[in-house]
Design goal:
This protein is α/β, with parallel strands linked by helices. About 35% of the residues lie in helices and about 15% in strands. Strands 3-2-1-4-5-6 form a 6-stranded parallel β-sheet, with helices on both faces. Strand 8 (about 240-250) and strand 9 (about 250-260) form a beta hairpin. Helix 7 (about 185-200) crosses helix 10.
Length: about 325
Protein backbone atom coordinates (compact mmCIF):
# COMPACT_ATOMS: atom_id res chain seq x y z
CA UNK A 1 0.00 0.00 0.00
CA UNK A 2 1.42 3.37 -0.97
CA UNK A 3 1.73 5.91 1.84
CA UNK A 4 3.07 8.76 -0.29
CA UNK A 5 -0.27 9.80 -1.78
CA UNK A 6 -2.74 12.46 -0.76
CA UNK A 7 -4.74 12.67 2.43
CA UNK A 8 -8.48 13.18 2.95
CA UNK A 9 -9.58 14.53 6.34
CA UNK A 10 -13.12 14.02 7.67
CA UNK A 11 -13.97 15.64 11.03
CA UNK A 12 -17.08 14.72 13.01
CA UNK A 13 -16.96 18.16 14.61
CA UNK A 14 -19.74 17.57 17.12
CA UNK A 15 -18.09 14.38 18.33
CA UNK A 16 -14.66 16.01 18.63
CA UNK A 17 -15.84 19.24 20.25
CA UNK A 18 -18.12 17.67 22.86
CA UNK A 19 -15.52 14.97 23.51
CA UNK A 20 -12.84 17.56 24.27
CA UNK A 21 -15.19 19.68 26.39
CA UNK A 22 -16.55 16.79 28.41
CA UNK A 23 -13.23 14.98 28.87
CA UNK A 24 -10.66 17.77 29.19
CA UNK A 25 -12.71 20.98 29.42
CA UNK A 26 -11.10 22.24 26.19
CA UNK A 27 -12.29 23.57 22.84
CA UNK A 28 -10.90 22.21 19.53
CA UNK A 29 -8.30 24.19 17.61
CA UNK A 30 -8.77 23.63 13.83
CA UNK A 31 -5.16 24.59 13.05
CA UNK A 32 -3.86 21.77 15.25
CA UNK A 33 -6.33 19.32 13.72
CA UNK A 34 -4.99 20.19 10.29
CA UNK A 35 -1.40 19.83 11.51
CA UNK A 36 -2.19 16.30 12.67
CA UNK A 37 -3.59 15.46 9.23
CA UNK A 38 -0.62 17.01 7.36
CA UNK A 39 1.74 14.67 9.21
CA UNK A 40 0.42 11.88 6.94
CA UNK A 41 0.86 13.75 3.64
CA UNK A 42 -0.55 16.62 1.58
CA UNK A 43 -4.21 17.19 2.45
CA UNK A 44 -6.31 17.21 -0.73
CA UNK A 45 -9.70 17.23 1.00
CA UNK A 46 -10.71 18.43 4.47
CA UNK A 47 -14.30 18.71 5.72
CA UNK A 48 -15.85 19.28 9.15
CA UNK A 49 -19.46 18.17 9.73
CA UNK A 50 -21.93 19.65 12.25
CA UNK A 51 -25.03 21.72 12.70
CA UNK A 52 -23.03 24.92 13.10
CA UNK A 53 -26.04 26.88 14.33
CA UNK A 54 -25.44 25.09 17.65
CA UNK A 55 -21.77 26.13 17.84
CA UNK A 56 -20.11 29.55 18.20
CA UNK A 57 -19.94 31.45 14.91
CA UNK A 58 -16.16 31.89 15.11
CA UNK A 59 -15.64 28.17 14.46
CA UNK A 60 -16.64 28.62 10.83
CA UNK A 61 -13.89 31.23 10.35
CA UNK A 62 -11.31 29.20 12.25
CA UNK A 63 -12.05 26.12 10.14
CA UNK A 64 -11.80 28.04 6.89
CA UNK A 65 -8.54 29.71 7.96
CA UNK A 66 -7.14 26.24 8.71
CA UNK A 67 -8.14 25.03 5.23
CA UNK A 68 -11.06 22.94 6.44
CA UNK A 69 -14.47 23.32 4.78
CA UNK A 70 -17.35 23.53 7.29
CA UNK A 71 -20.25 21.34 6.13
CA UNK A 72 -23.38 22.68 7.83
CA UNK A 73 -25.81 19.79 8.42
CA UNK A 74 -29.10 20.68 10.17
CA UNK A 75 -30.06 18.68 13.21
CA UNK A 76 -32.22 15.69 12.37
CA UNK A 77 -34.74 16.14 15.16
CA UNK A 78 -35.33 18.97 17.63
CA UNK A 79 -36.15 16.36 20.29
CA UNK A 80 -32.68 14.76 20.26
CA UNK A 81 -29.95 17.00 21.64
CA UNK A 82 -26.69 17.26 19.65
CA UNK A 83 -27.95 14.77 17.05
CA UNK A 84 -27.88 15.82 13.40
CA UNK A 85 -27.57 14.10 10.03
CA UNK A 86 -23.85 14.89 9.95
CA UNK A 87 -22.88 11.22 10.28
CA UNK A 88 -24.76 10.35 7.10
CA UNK A 89 -23.31 13.32 5.19
CA UNK A 90 -19.80 12.41 6.31
CA UNK A 91 -20.32 8.78 5.31
CA UNK A 92 -21.51 9.76 1.82
CA UNK A 93 -18.50 12.04 1.34
CA UNK A 94 -16.18 9.20 2.37
CA UNK A 95 -17.77 6.95 -0.28
CA UNK A 96 -17.44 9.69 -2.92
CA UNK A 97 -13.78 10.09 -2.00
CA UNK A 98 -13.14 6.35 -2.36
CA UNK A 99 -14.80 6.26 -5.78
CA UNK A 100 -13.69 9.58 -7.29
CA UNK A 101 -10.26 10.37 -5.81
CA UNK A 102 -7.80 7.57 -6.64
CA UNK A 103 -4.83 9.76 -5.64
CA UNK A 104 -6.01 9.79 -2.02
CA UNK A 105 -4.29 6.92 -0.24
CA UNK A 106 -4.92 7.89 3.40
CA UNK A 107 -8.24 8.65 5.08
CA UNK A 108 -8.20 10.37 8.47
CA UNK A 109 -11.45 10.12 10.41
CA UNK A 110 -11.59 12.39 13.43
CA UNK A 111 -14.46 10.75 15.27
CA UNK A 112 -15.17 8.14 17.90
CA UNK A 113 -18.51 6.97 16.54
CA UNK A 114 -18.88 3.24 15.95
CA UNK A 115 -21.25 3.97 13.04
CA UNK A 116 -18.18 4.30 10.78
CA UNK A 117 -16.80 0.80 11.39
CA UNK A 118 -18.09 -0.67 8.12
CA UNK A 119 -16.87 2.32 6.10
CA UNK A 120 -13.40 1.95 7.63
CA UNK A 121 -13.29 -1.77 6.90
CA UNK A 122 -14.50 -1.24 3.32
CA UNK A 123 -11.91 1.48 2.69
CA UNK A 124 -9.07 -0.77 3.89
CA UNK A 125 -9.98 -4.12 2.38
CA UNK A 126 -11.78 -3.22 -0.83
CA UNK A 127 -10.09 0.07 -1.81
CA UNK A 128 -6.69 -0.64 -0.25
CA UNK A 129 -6.59 2.64 1.68
CA UNK A 130 -4.77 3.45 4.90
CA UNK A 131 -7.28 4.58 7.53
CA UNK A 132 -6.35 6.63 10.58
CA UNK A 133 -8.83 7.09 13.42
CA UNK A 134 -8.18 10.20 15.52
CA UNK A 135 -10.61 10.68 18.38
CA UNK A 136 -10.68 12.02 21.92
CA UNK A 137 -9.32 9.42 24.38
CA UNK A 138 -12.11 7.73 26.26
CA UNK A 139 -14.67 8.77 23.64
CA UNK A 140 -13.70 6.40 20.81
CA UNK A 141 -15.37 3.07 20.14
CA UNK A 142 -12.97 0.18 20.71
CA UNK A 143 -14.42 -1.53 17.65
CA UNK A 144 -13.64 1.52 15.50
CA UNK A 145 -10.03 1.51 16.71
CA UNK A 146 -9.72 -2.19 15.93
CA UNK A 147 -11.08 -1.67 12.40
CA UNK A 148 -8.54 1.05 11.49
CA UNK A 149 -4.86 0.83 10.55
CA UNK A 150 -3.71 3.51 12.98
CA UNK A 151 -5.14 5.01 16.17
CA UNK A 152 -3.80 8.57 16.58
CA UNK A 153 -5.66 10.16 19.54
CA UNK A 154 -6.40 13.88 19.74
CA UNK A 155 -4.31 14.49 22.82
CA UNK A 156 -1.42 16.66 23.94
CA UNK A 157 0.92 16.26 26.86
CA UNK A 158 -0.28 18.23 29.83
CA UNK A 159 -4.00 17.81 29.23
CA UNK A 160 -5.73 16.83 32.47
CA UNK A 161 -8.96 14.82 32.28
CA UNK A 162 -12.03 15.97 34.16
CA UNK A 163 -13.00 13.35 36.73
CA UNK A 164 -16.73 13.12 37.34
CA UNK A 165 -18.21 12.54 40.77
CA UNK A 166 -18.10 8.94 41.84
CA UNK A 167 -21.51 7.28 41.85
CA UNK A 168 -22.46 4.51 44.22
CA UNK A 169 -22.31 1.91 41.45
CA UNK A 170 -19.24 2.79 39.45
CA UNK A 171 -15.53 3.53 39.55
CA UNK A 172 -14.28 7.03 38.75
CA UNK A 173 -13.16 7.46 35.17
CA UNK A 174 -12.61 10.62 33.17
CA UNK A 175 -15.30 10.55 30.55
CA UNK A 176 -17.97 13.19 30.92
CA UNK A 177 -18.81 15.98 33.33
CA UNK A 178 -21.64 15.72 35.79
CA UNK A 179 -23.04 18.84 34.14
CA UNK A 180 -23.38 16.87 30.91
CA UNK A 181 -25.20 14.02 32.67
CA UNK A 182 -26.98 15.65 35.64
CA UNK A 183 -27.02 12.33 37.53
CA UNK A 184 -24.46 9.89 36.17
CA UNK A 185 -25.67 7.07 38.42
CA UNK A 186 -29.25 7.45 37.17
CA UNK A 187 -28.02 7.51 33.57
CA UNK A 188 -26.25 4.18 34.07
CA UNK A 189 -29.32 2.69 35.77
CA UNK A 190 -31.55 3.72 32.86
CA UNK A 191 -29.17 2.16 30.36
CA UNK A 192 -28.83 -1.04 32.41
CA UNK A 193 -32.63 -1.38 32.57
CA UNK A 194 -32.81 -1.02 28.78
CA UNK A 195 -30.01 -3.58 28.23
CA UNK A 196 -31.70 -6.00 30.62
CA UNK A 197 -34.95 -5.68 28.67
CA UNK A 198 -33.22 -6.11 25.29
CA UNK A 199 -31.31 -9.13 26.59
CA UNK A 200 -34.61 -10.79 27.57
CA UNK A 201 -36.47 -10.00 24.36
CA UNK A 202 -33.84 -10.15 21.59
CA UNK A 203 -31.83 -13.13 20.29
CA UNK A 204 -28.49 -11.30 20.59
CA UNK A 205 -27.02 -7.87 21.33
CA UNK A 206 -24.41 -5.75 19.57
CA UNK A 207 -22.89 -2.40 20.50
CA UNK A 208 -24.66 -0.59 17.65
CA UNK A 209 -27.99 -2.31 18.37
CA UNK A 210 -27.97 -1.23 22.02
CA UNK A 211 -26.86 2.29 21.10
CA UNK A 212 -29.66 2.66 18.53
CA UNK A 213 -32.30 1.69 21.08
CA UNK A 214 -30.74 3.95 23.73
CA UNK A 215 -31.01 6.95 21.39
CA UNK A 216 -34.64 6.25 20.47
CA UNK A 217 -36.84 8.92 22.10
CA UNK A 218 -39.46 6.29 22.96
CA UNK A 219 -37.07 4.61 25.42
CA UNK A 220 -36.58 7.87 27.38
CA UNK A 221 -32.93 7.25 28.20
CA UNK A 222 -32.21 10.91 27.37
CA UNK A 223 -28.50 10.61 26.53
CA UNK A 224 -26.45 11.91 23.63
CA UNK A 225 -24.62 9.49 21.28
CA UNK A 226 -21.29 10.38 22.88
CA UNK A 227 -22.61 9.69 26.38
CA UNK A 228 -24.02 6.32 25.30
CA UNK A 229 -20.64 5.36 23.78
CA UNK A 230 -18.83 6.36 26.96
CA UNK A 231 -21.17 4.48 29.31
CA UNK A 232 -21.23 1.32 27.18
CA UNK A 233 -17.43 1.38 26.94
CA UNK A 234 -17.31 1.71 30.73
CA UNK A 235 -19.63 -1.29 31.07
CA UNK A 236 -17.24 -3.34 28.94
CA UNK A 237 -14.21 -2.23 30.95
CA UNK A 238 -15.96 -3.17 34.22
CA UNK A 239 -17.05 -6.59 32.95
CA UNK A 240 -20.78 -5.85 32.81
CA UNK A 241 -20.76 -6.45 29.06
CA UNK A 242 -18.53 -9.15 27.55
CA UNK A 243 -17.62 -9.26 23.86
CA UNK A 244 -17.57 -12.32 21.62
CA UNK A 245 -16.83 -12.52 17.90
CA UNK A 246 -19.13 -14.96 16.10
CA UNK A 247 -19.97 -15.78 12.47
CA UNK A 248 -23.74 -15.60 11.87
CA UNK A 249 -25.50 -15.84 8.50
CA UNK A 250 -22.30 -15.14 6.60
CA UNK A 251 -21.46 -12.09 8.73
CA UNK A 252 -18.89 -11.64 11.46
CA UNK A 253 -20.59 -10.04 14.45
CA UNK A 254 -19.09 -8.70 17.64
CA UNK A 255 -21.73 -9.76 20.15
CA UNK A 256 -22.31 -8.42 23.65
CA UNK A 257 -23.13 -10.71 26.57
CA UNK A 258 -24.97 -9.09 29.46
CA UNK A 259 -23.83 -10.33 32.89
CA UNK A 260 -26.93 -10.35 35.05
CA UNK A 261 -24.94 -11.79 37.96
CA UNK A 262 -22.54 -8.84 38.04
CA UNK A 263 -22.69 -7.14 41.47
CA UNK A 264 -23.19 -3.69 39.94
CA UNK A 265 -26.06 -4.97 37.78
CA UNK A 266 -27.78 -6.61 40.76
CA UNK A 267 -27.41 -3.44 42.84
CA UNK A 268 -28.57 -1.15 40.01
CA UNK A 269 -31.68 -3.16 39.16
CA UNK A 270 -32.58 -3.49 42.86
CA UNK A 271 -32.21 0.26 43.30
CA UNK A 272 -34.34 0.88 40.21
CA UNK A 273 -37.07 -1.36 41.62
CA UNK A 274 -36.98 0.48 44.97
CA UNK A 275 -37.26 3.83 43.17
CA UNK A 276 -40.24 2.56 41.18
CA UNK A 277 -41.99 1.39 44.37
CA UNK A 278 -41.27 4.71 46.08
CA UNK A 279 -42.63 6.67 43.13
CA UNK A 280 -45.81 4.56 43.10
CA UNK A 281 -46.30 5.10 46.83
CA UNK A 282 -45.78 8.85 46.51
CA UNK A 283 -48.22 9.21 43.63
CA UNK A 284 -51.63 10.68 44.65
CA UNK A 285 -54.39 8.09 44.89
CA UNK A 286 -57.17 8.39 42.34
CA UNK A 287 -60.69 7.27 43.20
CA UNK A 288 -62.28 4.81 40.80
CA UNK A 289 -64.68 6.55 38.41
CA UNK A 290 -67.69 4.50 39.60
CA UNK A 291 -67.14 5.05 43.32
CA UNK A 292 -69.57 7.24 45.22
CA UNK A 293 -68.35 10.76 45.93
CA UNK A 294 -67.19 11.37 49.48
CA UNK A 295 -69.54 13.47 51.68
CA UNK A 296 -67.98 16.45 53.46
CA UNK A 297 -67.83 15.98 57.23
CA UNK A 298 -70.06 19.04 57.89
CA UNK A 299 -72.95 17.42 56.04
CA UNK A 300 -72.66 13.84 57.28
CA UNK A 301 -75.28 14.26 60.10
CA UNK A 302 -77.70 16.36 58.07
CA UNK A 303 -81.06 14.55 57.57
CA UNK A 304 -81.98 13.81 53.96
CA UNK A 305 -84.33 16.15 52.16
CA UNK A 306 -86.50 13.27 50.97
CA UNK A 307 -87.38 9.98 52.56
CA UNK A 308 -86.26 6.98 50.53
CA UNK A 309 -88.96 5.42 48.42
CA UNK A 310 -89.98 1.91 49.41
CA UNK A 311 -89.01 -0.78 47.02
CA UNK A 312 -91.79 -1.86 44.70
CA UNK A 313 -92.38 -5.58 44.52
CA UNK A 314 -92.51 -6.74 40.94
CA UNK A 315 -94.68 -9.85 40.38
CA UNK A 316 -93.00 -12.77 38.77
CA UNK A 317 -96.22 -14.33 37.41
CA UNK A 318 -97.45 -13.09 34.02
CA UNK A 319 -100.32 -10.58 34.15
CA UNK A 320 -103.76 -12.19 33.32
CA UNK A 321 -106.89 -10.14 32.71
CA UNK A 322 -109.78 -10.75 35.20
CA UNK A 323 -112.36 -13.43 34.24
CA UNK A 324 -115.60 -12.12 32.84
Amino acid sequence: MSESGEVALFIDFENVRYGLKNTFGLEPEPQKLMEKARAYGPVALANAYADFTEHPEFYRRKLEVAGISPRDIPRRSPDVQHKSSSDMAMLLDIIDCLLDRPTVTTLILMTGDSDFIRAVARARYRFNKRVVVAGVPGCVSNDLIAAADINDPIFEEGWTPIVREVGALSKPYATYETTTVPNAQQAEIKLLKLIEYLDRTRPYLTFLFVKTHALAPSNQVELTPLQVDVILTGFKERGILLEEIRDMDGRTLRLLHFRRDHPEVIAALALAQQQQIAQAAAAPSVEPPNSAPSVPEAFRDTPPLFEPVAEIEIPTEPFLPPAE
